Every structure is written in C-alpha cells, then in structure tokens.
Amino acid sequence: xxxxRTAPVRLRSLALICILFIFGFFYFWRGAKDSPSFxxxxxxxxxxxxLVEEESKDSTETSARGEExxxxxxxxxxxxxxxxxxxxxxxxxxxxxxxxxxxxxxRPDTVVLFDKVPTRTLDIESVLPQDQKxxxxxxxxxxxxxxxxxxxxxxxxxxxxxxxxxxxFVWLNFPTNDSPAAxxxxxxxxxxxxxxxxxxxxxxxxIVIPRIRIYETMKLLSEESGCPFDFxxxxxxxxxxxxxxxxxxxxxRFQYPCNISTMGCAIIMPFIIxxxxxxxxMLSIDMAALEATANRIYKKNRILSRCYPVHPWLLxxxxxxxxxxxxxxxxxxxxxxxxxxxxxxxxxxxxxxxLSSFVYHQGELTRALVTK
Length: 372
What we know:
The protein is of the alpha/beta class. The chain has nine helices and eleven strands.
C-alpha cells in the first residue's frame, strides 16, 4: 500500500514562499533606504536642468564667438585685398616697399630686434625711371664700434646709391641694452628702412654667420613678398663713399667680361682708395682730394676681369640663388669671400672691378690705390 506524503510537501512549499517573501522585502527595503528621497530627486533634477542650461549658454556664446571670428577673418581678407590694391601702382608695377612690410627671421636662432621705417627724406638730384632702379639689400655687420658709423652712413646716403630702392640690414653682434651700436641704430634718423637682426642668445658670431643670416632674411622676404632683391651690397663701417660710385657699377652687369652669362656678373666691385694713416683718419679725410686723385689716374671707364675679391662688392642675387652664398664651415671668419669668388668662377660666372667707381676703405689693402 502506497502512502502519499502531501503534508510535508505543502509545508516545504509554504516555507520556501516565506523565505522568498522575506528576501524580497529586505531587498526592496534596502534599495529604498539607499535611494534619495523625493526632495533630493527634485534637487538633482534641478541641478541637471541648470547644467543643460549652462551648456546651451556656452554653445550660444561659442557660436557667437565663431561668427565674430568669421567677421574678423572676412574683414582681414578685405583689408589684405585693399593692401594688395594699394601695393600695386596704377601702371601695374608692385610697390615693394609695402609688400616687404613684414620681415621674419630665417631661423629659430635669429631674432628681429627692430624694423624701422625711414624717418627722414633726402633731396635727390636726379630720379631714375623705375625700370632703371635696382633693388638693393645692404648688409652691415657691427659689434660695439660706433665711431665710424655716422660718417660712413652719411656719405652713403649722399651718394648716387640713393636713386635706387634700398633696405639696410644690420646684424648686431652685441644687441644688449647697453650696446652702443644697438643704441645708435635704434635712434638713428635714417632715410632708408633699417632691419636689425641678432642671435637669439646674443652671441658674437663675428662675420660669416651674420652675413649668411642677412642673406637668408633677404631671400625669405623676397619669396614671401614676390619682390626679389636684385643685389646684395656688403658694407663695412670703416668705409666712405664718393658721390658718384654706385651707378658706375651697374653698366658692368652685362658688359665684358660678363656677357657670357645672360644673368650678368656674379660679383661687381668698385676700386678701393685709401691713405696711409691711422684708423681714425677717416674722421677727417679729404674726400674731394681723394676723388680728384682717383679721377686723374683712372680717366676711362675700365672694367677688369677675374679680379681678386674685395669689399664692398655687389652680389647678383639671381646667381647667388643658384650658386649659394658663404659656406658656414669658414665661420667665424676665414676665407669665405675667396671661396665664393672661386666657386662663382668655376661655375662660369665672372666678376668685374669697375675702375671708375671708388670707395674709401680704411681697413682694405687689396687692390687699393694708396696715396701719400
């Protein structure tokens, strides 16, 4: 006979239901205890609404700033176009003085100390037509000596070079606040634009590196403005310039011995004239007497080829872009000019010395007419 145990089964089922009910009660009770109360929920919802409002406000402000920036960019584009229109003359030629308005250092180790626009105007006796003007970047490297700067620059600005488009690039080897040279150029009343460059760490690089940095600055300025320089003219502070010296050099560009190249001479040099005196003699030099002596000896407009290089020389920028300028391996100063001269000669670019162009150079010994 089989007995059915229904009572224990029912008891076990009832016990299981009670256990599940107890666990469920504790679960919901604990969740209700940990959850925020109704006022807290309102607080959180209020914070959430405030955050959404702030994000919406920020988005609106960002959009407004974006519109403002676009307006500024549009105005900038209009201004640039107006500047371009102004920089192009009525006859279609470019006004390079305006287009070259922003100069940038060619390397991170170079800084532009200042960029001065002309602060005075000179009366030029004769004005050349635009197609006969040369665009010349003048390169001057200076340390602290200033005793020769005023007479050198005044003689330069009184000469026929002022009939051309000029920019003076000055490298200051000691550009500190107490540097006499830096102070001189910062306060000099100049009829031409002066761009002063220096090493970022105020190092003295002497000659080669500064000349190279000036050339690189000229090249960068030419590329960005679309107004290339025709010549690089190297200057020294112990020079004096005769009234008619520069224009005599220009015809030599395409005369013998330069006619083998359609680009003209690589290097054009004046003749150096000097006196046997001490280094302060140029402060009291009789330029008229020296010029009379030079003209008496050299009456003809002669051009010498394959000349030993001497400063100041006029360097053809088109040829330099193909040939290269000074080699940094000759830094601080060695035979960088001799190397450039022979590289030009080897490449087939000739050099010339014009014996109807004279410059006084106190420190120059090579190819000099020495007077008593």
